[in-house]
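Q&A log
Question type: sequence-to-structure
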Amino acid sequence: MNLALMGIRGIPANYGGFETFAEQVATRLVKRGHQVTVYGRSNNIKYREPYYHGVRLVILPTISHKYLDTVAHTFLCAWHAALREKYDAILVCNSANAIFCIIPRLFGQKVAINVDGLEWQRKKWNKLGQWYYKASEWLSTKLADVVVTDSKFIKRYYLEKFKQDSVFIPYGAPTMKVPANDTLKRYGLRPRDYVLYVSRLEPENNAHLVVKAFEQVKTDKRLVVVGDAPYSTDYIRELKATKDPRIIFTGYVFGHGYQELQSNAYFYVQATEVGGTHPALLEGMGFGNCVLANDVPEHREVLEDAGYFFTTSENGDLASKMQYLLDHPEAVAGAAQKAVEIIKRDYTWEKITEDYEALFLRMLAGKK
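Response status: OK
Response body:
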C-alpha cells in the first residue's frame, strides 16, 4: 500500500507522543513492504534527508503560533496529498485536523483520523479553542472514513455522544532496559535514586502538583522532571521557582537519553488528567517502572492492578502515596513486574503496527 501520516510535527521524533507513534509505526510498515510518507513541519524538523529508515519525508511550512501551527500545516498537507499524490490511505492525527479530512477524500483517497483525547478539556485553550475542538470531534465523525480512538474510554465517549463507533488501536511502547550511563552522569543521578515525571509542562498535566507533593516527602532521592512546552513560559517559570534542591528540570530529552532515564528510575509519576492512552505512561511501564498515576479512567484502563493511584481532589494524597512507595521498595518492585507483562501482552509496537496495517487493508476493501 501507499500510505501517508499527517497532522504531526514530523519525524525523527523530537517532541511528543504522536511523533514517536509515527516513527515507530511508519518504519515498521516500510519493513512490511509498504510505501509510507510522513509529513513534517519546517519549524520543527531539521533532518534534511528525503528518507528516514525507508520512510519518505515531506516537509512543508507552517505558522508558528499556538493556535495555528497544527491546522495551518495540516491544511497544506491535505492539499499536497490531494493534488500531488495518490495514496491508498491516509492517517490524520489530532481531531483539530478533522476539517481537512474532506480534501483528500474528494480526490478519492481513504482517510482515517486518530482523534487523540478530549483536547477541549485542556486548560491552555481559551473559549474559542475549546469550541473549535468540540466542533472538530463532531466533524471527525462526518468527514473521515474511519475514526480511530486510542483508549476504550474515548471509544465509549464517541459512541455515547455521537453514536459513532470507532476502531480502538492504542499507543505502543518498548519493553527494554538501558544501563545507566552519560545521561545520568550529566544530571548527577544514580540508578534507582530518583523519581521520574515526564510530560509537556502544561497545567492540566499537573507538574505543579507533583513538585509540591515531592517538596513534602522525606527522602534523599531526587525528583527528575522531563519535558517542556512551547507556549507555557509563565507556568514553567513558576515550576522552576521551587527552592527544593532535590528537584531537577531537564527540559526535553529524547532517544537514548530518555530511555536511560526511564530505565533507571525508582518509580514513575503519571499525573495527567486529559487525553487517551498516554504514551509516557506506557513507556514508563515498558521500561520496568512502578507507576503512581492520577486516578482517571484512562489510567485505570491501562494500569489495571499493576500500579498505584492518587486523587487530585484530596489534599495531600499524592504526597502520601509518594511517601508510601519511597518507604516500601518491595511494593515498587512488584508493581513494576506486573506493568511490563501488561505491555508485552497488549501494547507492543509490533501489535500496534499490525492493527494499523489491518485497518488500512479494510479501508481499501471498503470495510471499517
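Response note: The first helix runs from residue 17 to 31.
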